[in-house]
Sequence to fold (356 residues):
Amino acid sequence: MKARAALLLAIACASLWGTAIARDYAQVRPGHELQFPRDHGSHPQFRTEWWYLTGWVSDESGRDSGIQITFFRNRPRVAEDNPSRFAPRQLLFAHAALADPETGKLLHEQRAARAGFGLAEAQQGRTDVNIDDWSLRQSAQGYSARIAAPEFAYALEFRPAQPVLLQGVRGLSRKGPEPAQASFYYSQPQLAVSGFITLRGEKRAVRGLAWLDHEWSSEYLAPQAQGWDWIGLNLADGGALMAFRIRDKQGGTLWAGGTLRAADGRVRVFDPGEISFQPLRRWRSPRTQTEYPVALRVRAGDLEFELEPLMDDQELDARASTGTIYWEGAVTARTGDKLLGRGYLELTGYWRRLRL
Fold:
């Protein structure tokens, strides 16, 4: 009952997100240098923030699965002067999903709560965010995630093998034609995963590779933006690639960007004109009738490859928390017959225009 009440409160407050304009929040500005470990933690003065963890894991039989855990923080600017501890100064949302080909569709669960009372928190100074018994926490060794959903559970550890990868220009990632349309953004690719997944009562030991994104902003999408296509790939040679495009309402590219860290550690930041996403095959959801380009040809500079999903049905219905439906799934990247890497593809704004 308490969880249900918290969920309803969060949804009600979420409807007020638009009541505060971007200048009422802290701003993303050039020249700001990200500092660690401080910036691993929460930035409550900004409007929106998320920690986004995805990966491929295999059990002892070689069975592949895709994992996804996301915690969102939102500052709605509602009743901030109210001294009550019940005032919704910060809202937290979480999504967790398991892509299991034997199941044939995405298993997912979501939570929402106002921050406070020790039940839902996003700590400053290090990654430590939780909603009840769902958590993502940072230690000297890496990260640990604990998720308990009705159909599946995660008890996973993530160990960094590489330094933080700053996205954009020293961590400032443009998301549109106006300079203010930007976020602070870094990634931790090539995370070594180990631990346990429980599915239908069966506990399985798994290992694999994961990718963590941490991003925060106060003004994100341009008014003419419909949504985005995004990929994060752990490359087979040890490198890492992030690429995205912001789509306009006609399906064209409003903005794009990306970053490649080669196996030798050299980093290249792509200009908008160097990124393209070309649909190769579409899948229609039997539940929402939304069509998603689940197979794509992607170009990032002189690198070109094709994405193919682990399975087609990786649609996530998040209307009960963040108010949208999108496709978020495990994919492989290939150049011809060669495996370039594995990672995750996110497709938003195909159901309806995405609003943050």
Summary: The two ends are 28 Å apart (CA to CA). The domain at 35-347 is CATH 2.40.370.10 (AttH-like fold). Confidence is low (pLDDT under 50) at residues 1-19.
